[in-house]
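A reminder from the course coordinator: this example appears on the midterm review sheet, so study it carefully.

Given structure:
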């Protein structure tokens, strides 16, 4: 998760900086941060592209960039560490990306209930990162460790 936070520092949106890291079998397979498509002026250069809800629509989200920059085999049964809980659109993309676990640092966005329901249907774990449980990052990155926390969404939801 520290690496996701470091990746987020590269984000180019003024409103929010998000970083994500793909970990498979204890190895980092890729990273992503939110920003405008390559070669297009970003929020730092031309300010945010704010919509009616006050959200910036210029940036490709960190999770989508992560998917764009990794292969299906790299994502198979992998874990995504992301600084912010995925939005609905990214949640849908992650649900179809082959990953099995999402660990986020900051609660963010609405529609948590439907996000949890969709991920549970796909048997993808959604976990709120708790730093006190992962002083040693090795167990966190062990894919077998997901088995004991496979369905956290259901217990948190009711
Ligand atoms: Zn922006
Ligand atoms: Zn998103």
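Designed residues:
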């Amino acid at each position: 998760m520290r690496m996701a936070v470091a990746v987020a520092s590269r984000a180019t949106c003024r409103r929010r900086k998000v970083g994500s890291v793909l970990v498979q079998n204890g190895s980092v397979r890729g990273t992503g941060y939110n920003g405008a498509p390559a070669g297009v002026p970003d929020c730092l250069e031309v300010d945010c592209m704010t919509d009616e809800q006050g959200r910036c629509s210029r940036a490709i989200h960190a999770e989508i960039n992560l998917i764009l920059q990794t292969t299906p085999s790299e994502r198979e049964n992998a874990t995504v560490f992301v600084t912010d809980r995925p939005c609905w659109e990214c949640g849908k993309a992650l649900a179809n990306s082959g990953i099995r676990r999402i660990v986020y640092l900051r609660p963010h966005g609405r529609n948590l209930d439907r996000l949890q329901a969709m991920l549970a249907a796909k048997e993808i774990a959604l976990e709120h990162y708790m730093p006190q449980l992962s002083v040693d990052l090795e167990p966190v990155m062990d894919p077998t460790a997901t088995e004991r926390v496979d369905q956290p969404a259901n217990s948190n939801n009711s």
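The two ends are 27 Å apart (CA to CA). The longest strand covers residues 27-33.
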